């Protein structure tokens, strides 16, 4: 029994030290860009640090307590700028000209696409941006009267009215995948754009993000809506850089959407905000919500916008 307890203590101490090193490394991402991959799990480091701190104090292990404190503090330091970040102008619930935008990774292996379609239809959104879309999901939404942009790919935009025009910046082999189109709304034309960026461990991510900046820069941004699965937490170095460079305002703030399931079962405690919705300065935010589990490993992200009221 003593050997078992000792083994458990070693495992706990190892987890705490690993969390402290990873969180501390994440703080150095500004100087060592490759360390940015460590930032995405910041909430995990914080939880491990806090639980480890309680254990270390009760067990009288001072060095482990110090490591646990470092993990908790470094985690908070990573997340705090995201929590305090300005998400742009706000609009009241009764603001005129509202549009409802849903971003969702539908998961290509989702066993219940009908659930996704039924939930989306019931929400009556104005724009649905889907990553990992499939022909059966596309057909289900089309059967309900929805119009599609990007119908032949894995990223699609669904609306109740057909787009006005599609001015597509030239594609480049091996770079960013995206869909964009211009739509009419009661308050004027809107440029909608959706994308799906690779995991932060992928070697192509830098090129994808540079291409995204280029694409956004070639399109009208005042009333643009950009949504996608960025596979990057809001507090990561790459998302903070995009926040500064795109000329758009990210409307979600620490809205965790992943993971939504574990072993095929819904998971109620997502910790990574990796789905994001940006909008141009011509939009004010009415509300930001997280949708329910619909069989995907991502929760939907729902943002309601309204045109900025004239001064």
Short structural summary:
The protein is α+β, with helices and mostly antiparallel strands and 311 residues long.
Using the CA coordinates, give the radius of gyration.
Answer: 21 Å
* Number of separate structural domains: 2
Element-level helix/strand string: HHHEHEHEEEEHEHEEEEEE
CATH third-tier fold name of the largest domain: Deoxyribonuclease I, Chain A
Provide the helix percentage: 25-40%
Strand content: 15-25%
Low-confidence stretches: none
Total strands:
13
CATH level-two architecture of the largest domain: 4-Layer Sandwich
Note the gap between the termini.
72 Å
Name of the level-1 CATH class of the largest domain: Alpha Beta
Shape: globular
Average predicted confidence as pLDDT = 92
What spatial order of strands do you see in the largest sheet?
3-4-2-1-13-12
Computed structural class: alpha+beta
The major sheet is characterized as: 6 strands, mixed
What does this structure look like?
Helix 1 (2-27) packs across helix 2 and helix 2 runs antiparallel to helix 3. The longest helix has 26 residues, at 2-27. It is built from 7 helices and 13 strands. It folds into 2 domains: 2-84, no CATH class; 99-307, Endonuclease/exonuclease/phosphatase (Deoxyribonuclease I, Chain A). The chain is globular. The strands form 3 sheets. A 6-stranded mixed β-sheet has the order 3-4-2-1-13-12, with helices on one face. The protein has a 5-stranded mixed β-sheet with strand order 5-6-7-11-8, with no helix packed on it. The termini are far apart. With 311 residues, the chain is an alpha+beta fold.
